[in-house]
Amino acid sequence: MKSYIIRFAAVFALLCAPVRAEGLAELAGKIAESIREQLLFQQGTALSITGFENYSELTPLALQRFYQLIASRLESAGFDFKDTLLDMRQQKGVFNNSRVHQANCLIYLRLLRNKERLGVGMALFSRTLDRILTIAYHEALVPLPELLTIREADFGFRSSGFARVFEIPVRKGLLDLALFDPKDGSAAHYLFFYADEIIAYEQEGKSLVPRDSFTLSWSRPYYPAQQNAGRLTVFSWNGELLLFAGSNFSPQSIVFKQVDGKWLEKTRIPFVPFAVQTVNQQDYLVGAAYATGRNYFLGNLHFLGMDSVDPAMAQAYRKEIPEFFNVVYAGRDPENKAWHLIGKDCQWSVFSADFAPLETFNIRSGQALDVLEDHWLALSDFSRKRDKVFFYDISAGGRRLVYESDIDGEIAFIRANIWNNRPGFWLLIEKDEDEAFQWLQFWSNEK
Amino acid sequence: MKNKLFNITVLALALINLGAVKPRFGGELSIRLNEPNSFAPGSDTYSNLIFSSLLYENLFYMGQDGSILSNVFSDCNYDRNGMLLTLQMKKNLSYSNGKAVTQKNIKTSLKVFSSLNLHQARRLNRALKSIDLQENNRILIALNFNLSDLFSILASPELILVADDDGVYSGPFLPLEWIKGDQMILQPNPFYPGGRSYLDTIRVHFDNKSRDLFLSEPKLSTQHYHEHTAGIYQNIYLCFPRPGGSINTRIALYTFLREFQKKSNSGYQLLDSLTSDDESPVAVKVEEFPIGRVNSILQQSNLILHVHSSLQNIEEKLTDFIKNRQSRINLVFFSHDDYRLMGEIDDSIPYMLTSKAFRRDTPAAEKLARIISELTFRRFDEKYLKMISELNEMKFMVDEALLLEQTARIVEEIVRDGFILPLFQKRFSLYVRSKFKDFELDYFGRPLVNRTHLDYD
Predict the structure, then answer these.
(1) Which of A253, A301, A328, A349 would staple A360 via disulfide (CB 3.0–4.6 Å)?
(2) How many structural domains does chain B have?
């Protein structure tokens, strides 16, 4: 009961409080001011926080808020702030050290608790001069209501984050889906990939209506799997609409070409395509081959020149990587682009564009992963018994958990897509093994 | 009107595990079994039953709850009025060498099974009228008369998907290496119709050490293991295929073997009934000779005892026992490397030791029918055919007292004829190390290990 009263009081205090810098914001302002004073007339200097230790009582998420406040203050002061924070682990910041060279000055922060006050020690180091420019210490009173508000605000932020906006039951055995928008005025279709057919659905209000279907004919060798898995990719290239259907029960993916509104088989390729990527001004079809009959991919990424997607196909260029469940190449800016890979060991690792290992996060993740608009990364949980979906902000090159939610069932796949012109993620959920259907949910953070 | 007795779907077997979307592949499962003689299928002992199920796929399975499942057929229905069974084969089925499984292979498999000297096989053989191979992987099986337990017959462990060539398998695993007397390594069959196993290897050991999976007597105190009551027992019988012969020698041999059981610690219990002591209405009490008389008879007789190879695990102890008693018994181990030869025992053999594995909850009448069918050798005279027919009829009896009386009468007749004497029984539980998950048994107590995987949670 007591905690309810305190929480209520905190929210009430927040609503009634005059808008002014207080506590954390005041501290962030003071730190930024110290740095600004030291670097007078050096606006545009590239700064990065490379050390961040917490000896206060703030939670990791509150620390992230504090970090964001400082970043915001420094950017407002005209500095080029390089955000390299990946995570808070054991009260210490984990940084993307491969980007440190982009900053001229490095900042070290340590948070302390001094009775009722919160203190921040700061050291500013110049990489150019190879010496410490200044050391500062500031304190501020962070009242209990504010501390609680940070937590409440954090909770509030989460609830206003990603939410399930749509759910429908679908026939069991859905392997993947893709949106096919012909851009010629005709209706867009959601293509549902089953082991034996692809069904085209059209959105009608809040439902999906089947419009067309075509049978898939898999040739030998055929490797039966206990859990069928597959990927469906659709895109246009050189004026051609292409559809790729790959699975773990056939080593050959089928490539379809749209002709007069019908999907006709064009060729077969020996790997499962994920995307088209431009390397050295040439478009490549990127994909990998499943370990046949199993639910993970072999450790080779195939890069096939798009010109070669025909029967007389040239040999694909291959890049060796660890065996994996899922891989996505994402990042908002070119320098932030990285391969996010869920390995066969259920570890989430990040590789640079040229496959240099950058970071492996010390958590066991699930197997489903996808990225939306180079900004949001959705990931399933490791546990088979109680699944969760996690949404991370990866736009700045690191990862920041912004929302997580329990899932009633197990996530079979996550696919970034669109519903009602709203970007988000499709999640296929297996709720009950005895049910003859699965649940397709759409999650979005756009209202 | 069509009477759909059963209608199974493509997901029949997979359905059990559909909730588990995240099992991980990898790992090895070690199993302790008796060493087989060859890769040929066998079902006479529980150990062979398990080993065969690793290499050969059954056309149908029966779940622990009696449900009928299949990895080979996507659809199946039985028209009782038309006495017509329609099977729809799955697409793209392959043997372990990648060669396609055809309708003809299914037909051959059914023919091979129905030609076996097994109780259920003979029943199917009598009922089979024709097997018609149709377009689109459909197979029509016409029967001469309705079999009330048709799918139970089709789920017999001996009804396997046989290949045209040797060294080709249809089951979840295939042999990679066999170190005789020590172990065998099996690898997943990538073309297994039920889906590739989560495990990388299975290592079958032929020793007495604890392994990830082993058979032992029930209620063993084991940490980190789950006990699965297999519901299986294995009986050993002393049979006398050749009619006539000395009664005294038979009784002496019977007494000798019972004495061996009492002295050796082989895990068997003495059996005083044809099926099981706790269910049989008639106890078989054979007069046992004093040990001096037994020794005297057996030291003079120089007899040859044919022992089925499935009992090779008792060879060492039995040989030592024979030596110690200075008896002149020569052991000759024989095997049927093929189901087709099963039960075709030469009735010139005077003394034979053989075993049969039974599921405990199978009705006593059905077990007796099996014993008569499979152990009476070539004595299929009118009397035994009548007896089997009576046992089949007993399935429909509702009066328990009458059922008991009928069973007792038939057991008495068999015992009186004196061609088979029950010796020992072994009951089994299956122990599985708890780190292995999604472990299930079918109706016959066989582990469905292709779905088993290591627990990473």
Answers:
(1) A349
(2) 2
CA distance B114 to B124: 6
* ipTM computed for the complex: 0.78
pLDDT by residue (tens digit) across B400-434?
777 778 778 888 888 777 788 899 998 888 999 99
Q: Mind telling me how many Å the CA of B17 is from chain A's nearest CA?
A: 7
- Distance between A292 CA and the closest CA of chain B, angstroms: 8
Q: Please indicate if any CB of chain A lies within 8 Å of the CB of B299.
A: no
Question: Which positions in chain A touch B457 (Cβ < 8 Å)?
Answer: 382-385
B23 at A interface, C-beta within 8 A:
yes
Give percent above pLDDT 70 in chain B. 89
Q: Look up the domain containing B113 and give its range.
A: 13-172+434-454
A321/A309 Cα distance (integer angstroms): 23
For residue B380, is pLDDT > 80? Answer: no
Domain annotation covers residue B448 = yes
Strand partners, B271: none
Q: Are residues B17 and B52 in the same domain?
A: yes
Do B259 and B345 lie in one domain? The reply is yes
Query: Concatenated DSSP letters for B40-94?
Result: S---SSHHHHHHHHHH--BS-EEBTTS-EE-SSEEEEEEETTTTEEEEEEPTT-B
Report B:379-438 residues touching A (Cβ under 8 A).
none
Q: Tell me which residue in A222, A226, A346 faces B14 most closely, judged by beta carbons.
A: A226
pLDDT tens-digit profile of A335-386?
Answer: 778 899 999 989 999 998 888 888 888 888 889 999 998 889 999 998 766 7
Enter the DSSP assignment of A19.
S
B439 & B382 share domain? no
Query: CB–CB of A33/A78 below 8 Å?
Result: no
Test the B interface: residue of A226, A248, A389 with most B CBs within 10 Å = A226
CATH number 3.40.50.300 given to A2-153: no
